[in-house]
Amino acid sequence: VSLAVWPLLRRELVVDRVELAGLRATVTRFKDGRLSIDDLTAGRTDKTPATEAEPAAAPLKLDIAGIAITDAALTFVDQQAPRRVQLTRASVETGRFAVGVPVSVALKGRLDADAPRLGADLALEGRLALGPAPSGGSAHPVRAPRVVCNLPQLARAAGASGFFNVAPDPDGTV
């Protein structure tokens, strides 16, 4: 990671590139609905309210030239369902990552779930925009040129729970 220091004075975080190898993370949803990461995603815990004399701090602007994540494994354990979903052998590659700038994203990995039973090798490519959607803008298509999965099991799972209905075009566009 290479960080530019001068932009920090303007509340801008400019990073050359972020690379992570071997990332392992597990998120658990407990039976009471709490997530194991709630303490990381909570807002201000300070009980002292901001006064009118304190000006609101400008949000930090983030600009990263690219992100590369290799050999990652993400697990979601849902104790309410119960179910376990895993993304393994995952890699993510992005282009420039900044608010208001469409970013190219490529994701590859293995997706497995136990309820409903699912196994899929994924290869997705697309462009995402961070921040509010531009007025009059159009969505960027997500390409899935190499999605391989057990279609009979997937069809049964989708039909039973009704959570999606996807049919890729012949060229792989979803």
Can you give keywords for this protein?
2 helices, seven-stranded mixed β-sheet, four-stranded mixed β-sheet, mainly beta, single chain, globular, 174 residues
How are helices and strands ordered from N to C?
EEEEHEEEEEEEH
Distance between the termini: 34 Å
Strand content: 35-45%
Number of strands: 11
SS-based structural class?
A: mainly beta
Shape: globular
Q: Give the overall pLDDT as a whole number.
A: 75
Low-confidence stretches: 148-152, 157-167
- Biggest sheet, in brief? 7 strands, mixed
Q: DSSP helix count? A: 2
| Helix percentage | under 10%
Rg (C-alpha, Å): 20 Å
Compact description:
With 174 residues, the protein is mostly beta strands. It has helices spanning 38-41, 151-161; strands at residues 3-4, 12-15, 18-21, 24-29, 61-64, 67-78, 83-94, 97-98, 103-114, 117-128, 148-149.
What does this molecule look like?
- The protein is mainly β.
- The chain is built from 2 helices and 11 strands.
- The strands form 2 sheets. Strands 3, 4, 6, 7, 9, 10 and 11 form a 7-stranded mixed sheet that branches. It has a 4-stranded mixed sheet with strand order 1-2-5-8, with no helix packed on it.
- Strand 9 (103-114) and strand 10 form a beta hairpin.
- It starts with a strand and ends in a 13-residue tail after the last helix.
